[in-house]
Amino acid sequence: MGVATPTADRGAERSGFVACDRIDPITVLRLLRLTAPADFADWYAAFATNAMAIQYRPDAPGADEIGTDNWWEVLAREDVTVAHSDPAVDPGGYRAIMVQQLGATPFEGRRLYDESTYRRLRANSVTPADTESHLRVALRSGDVDYAIYYRSLCETTDLPWVALQPSVDLSKATPRYAAHYATATVETAAGTFTGAPIAYGITVPSVADAPAAGARWIEHLASDAGQRLLSAHGFDPIAPLTVPSEQASTVPDRLSEHTESAGAIGPLEL
């Protein structure tokens, strides 16, 4: 599933949202906060969070042993390859590295593994593709054994996968988890990235040709059926949708019962 964002092409045909597969969710929230009110929209809302997870082939080395409580032990073995996307191109790539970093970083006095295990995880890590969607091809073909990417992607295939601890999966938008996530940093050719909870934003652009259609789509997304659909695809819905306090009066009437206003979601400033 993509992230709904305003489009910068005012001449393009649009019905109220654009689905994008390669936009950093945190950047989307920041993009909407910094530019959407002035240039593209009168409001925006946070609608879901996500988590990092590990997917693997049933015949991968250690597949019959791996679980939430020992995934690092399996992935650190000499005969294992662990794939993630390119951290300079795809946010899932640097988030996969952050997962590995955070496991070796104490959270409330306890860490999952030591520095030597972290180094083995990094030594076993490969980047066979730019994006997560291409990683699945490498996984199915047997080129790699395990892949670290979004839980929502794990839910779209029949391959088994492992849920990770909240201390490493970047899923919790609370101050104590966010402070821990922020201890992870990844340097790439595209810049340095700091860990943060994964969250998604949505709006109906003011330049849309059919803004009512966009509002109806978001209304469905916020409904019980839409929330169940998000959950079934690996997302954690934010219910009601959360809108910045100063924009509450500009939300379309049909969405008012599905939204609440706030200055932040946990540590995430709106």
Descriptive labels:
single chain; 270 residues; 15 strands; four-stranded mixed sheet; 32% helix; disordered N terminus; alpha+beta
In the CATH scheme, what's the topology name of the domain at 52-194? D-Maltodextrin-Binding Protein, domain 2
Shape: elongated
Structural class: alpha+beta
Order of helices and strands: EEHEEHEHHEHEHEHEEEHHEEEE
Largest sheet: 5 strands, mixed
Q: What's the CATH architecture name of the domain at 52-194?
A: 3-Layer(aba) Sandwich
Helix content: 25-40%
Taking the alpha carbons of the first and last residues, their distance comes to 22 Å
- Low-confidence blocks of residues: 1-27
CATH class of the domain at 52-194: Alpha Beta
Cα radius of gyration in angstroms: 19 Å
What is the count of helical runs?
Answer: 9
Strand order of the largest sheet: 6-5-7-4-8
What does the model show?
- The chain is of the alpha+beta class.
- Helices cover 32% and strands 21% of the residues.
- The strands form five sheets. It has a five-stranded mixed beta sheet.
- Strand 14 (264-265) and strand 15 form a beta hairpin.
- The longest helix is centred in the first third of the chain and has 16 residues, at 25-40.
- The chain is elongated.
